[in-house]
Amino acid sequence: MKFLRQTAAVFLVAIFIATLFAGILAPAPYARQFRESPNALPSRIHLLGTDELGRDLFSRLLYGSRVSLLLAPAASLLATIIAALVGGVAGYVGGWIERIALAGTDLSMSLPWLFLLLTVRAVLPLNLPPAASLLITFGLLGFFGWAASARVICAGARGLRNSDFVLQAKACGCSSQRVLLQQVLPNLRPVLYAQFLISIPVFILTEANLGILGLGVSEPLPSWGGLLRGLENWSAVQANPARLAPLVLLFVVVSCFQLVMPQEDFAS
Amino acid sequence: MTQATPLLSLRLSVDYPDKPSVLRNLSLEMYHGETLGLIGQSGSGKSTLALAILRLLHLHRGEPRGEIWFQGRNLVDRSEREMRSVRGRELGLVLQSPLSALNPALRIDTQLEEAWRAHAEGSRDAARKTILETMSSVSLPAERSFLRRYPSQLSVGQAQRVLIALAILHRPALLIADEPTSALDVITQSEILQLFQRLNREFGIAILYISHDLLSVASLCHRIAILYDGEIVECAPPSQIFGAPQHSYTQKLVAALPRGPFLDFHNDKLGSPASIADEDECAERSAKLSPR
């Protein structure tokens, strides 16, 4: 198990670095169209072949991985921060504040949030510049994806609220805010870390879902969702099975995230 | 430090939502530099009293009524902000279980520094200086490597000393110790008792020592108060408690002490704070401290 975890971690780091240096590693810019060779099969020039527009699939995969792998953690960070604020304060303060916050998270969790995302995304103009669509997609993920984490963090903070060391810190004259920041938060760190890690693959998959439906990051900027959309054309996939590469990579990366997660955190 | 004004004088009733009248019009007086032992069985409201004095009872959903006069002020009227400046600076608290009262996620120097910052401003060096002084006054190694440890890396006795250091960092006038030795083995227990005695003598810190162990209290305290059924039923010097207990509960407590050829605690000798070396000094102190 330890070997698997290490391998997964090494693999994730390798992919991450590869995507960071996409500008150097990619044989062509992601939007460049080789008009003379559309739908090319894998060759030495195009490692994974090209799409209908003659864009190099390997380059698009590298750039697309960069978008997904950088922005899913960013969205996860946003979601975890919101969850820590809502859940941490609610659990620590307790009383009616906790009740309202938990009602809010319950409401938010009961919403079918993929549909909600679709609705919100559909309300926004579709012809956004790629960079804006990218920020909006992951901003939305972050803003809608905090509820489950908030509940977990709230439960952790509630347990700490009545702990002896919080009582002791208060008896030393520390203010409530200070106790929350200096005493409670460090004890929540493992929970926050686990929630952060758990949210990343969730957001990668959600972005892929949106992308397949054409509501994610807009063309020509690639993302995993957008690349998976290319699989709609089944005859092209049959002609060039290397087109399945984004799907395989998505599967492997999400599995690796599951493997890397500290097992002991699942108990809590 | 006049004889006439007590350091702490309270008259208090406490209710919990599911348990009314835990304390019923309990009245208690303590004097400067005094060590008062508070004895009562489990669930008799000893810890409730400790938290009520610090005005932290709301954390356990208790509702106190009455007055708590401490150093000339009624703490019941104070705002939360004013109470915060009293807690830790004038009133210290030591809890029962040292390992749960220290934050497991923080190094002990961080925790001591937090407690220092609650009432002092200044550089890290100033904080460190006070912390190191306090460490040596509770007989802990005043070394950086020791301060960098986490609570899980300490023995229970060391952790209890760190807890005491936290409580006396600002030299409070009154230290409330809530069963501070009940989680310790006998040898560590006697060391901690000696430490309390030394803090009382060296710094003149008054100590409200809450316990269910009559013997350990006898060796430390100038007076012993017996809490029974939410009231103080008897409050007297150890000699009287052991020699001539008045209340039937006190009589039962004293009668329950172990007896045997080597164990005779039922004479007057043990009645005075035995470990204070100088008998004369002891007598002088109890004369000075005795309210009547």
Describe this structure in words.
The complex is a heterodimer of chains A (268) and B (292). With 268 residues, chain A is an all-alpha fold. Chain A has a single domain (2-267), classed as Orthogonal Bundle (MetI-like fold). Chain A contains twelve helices and no strands. Chain A has helices at 2-20, 22-25, 57-93, 95-110, 113-123, 130-144, 147-161, 164-171, 176-212, 224-229, 234-239, 245-260. The longest helix of chain A has 37 residues, at 57-93. Chain B has 292 residues and is of the alpha/beta class. Chain B has a domain at 14-100 and 172-256: P-loop containing nucleotide triphosphate hydrolases (Rossmann fold). Helices cover 38% and strands 22% of the residues of chain B. Chain B has twelve helices and ten strands. Chain B has helices at residues 46-53, 80-86, 98-101, 108-117, 124-137, 144-147, 156-168, 186-203, 214-220, 238-243, 248-255, 279-289, and strands at residues 8-16, 19-30, 35-39, 63-70, 73-74, 91-94, 174-178, 206-211, 223-228, 231-236. In chain B, strands 6-7-8-3-9-10 form a six-stranded mixed sheet, with helices on both faces. Chain B has a four-stranded antiparallel sheet with strand order 2-1-4-5, with helices on one face. In chain B, α4 crosses α5 (124-137). Chain B is globular and about 55 Å long.
* Radius of gyration of chain B, CA atoms, in whole angstroms: 19 Å
- Any idea what the CATH superfamily of chain A is called? MetI-like
What is the ordering of alpha helices and beta strands of chain B? EEEHEEHEHHHHHEHEHEEHHH
CATH class division of chain A: Mainly Alpha
Number of strands of chain A: 0
**Proportion of residues in helical segments of chain A:** over 70%
Q: What's the CATH architecture name of the domain at 14-100 and 172-256 in chain B?
A: 3-Layer(aba) Sandwich
Distance between the termini of chain B: 16 Å
User: Which class do the helix and strand fractions of chain B yield?
Assistant: alpha/beta
Number of domains of chain A: 1
**Low confidence ranges of chain A:** none
What best-fitting shape of chain B do the alpha-carbon axes yield? Answer: globular
Q: Give the mean pLDDT of chain B.
A: 86
Global shape of chain A = elongated
Count of helix runs of chain A: 12
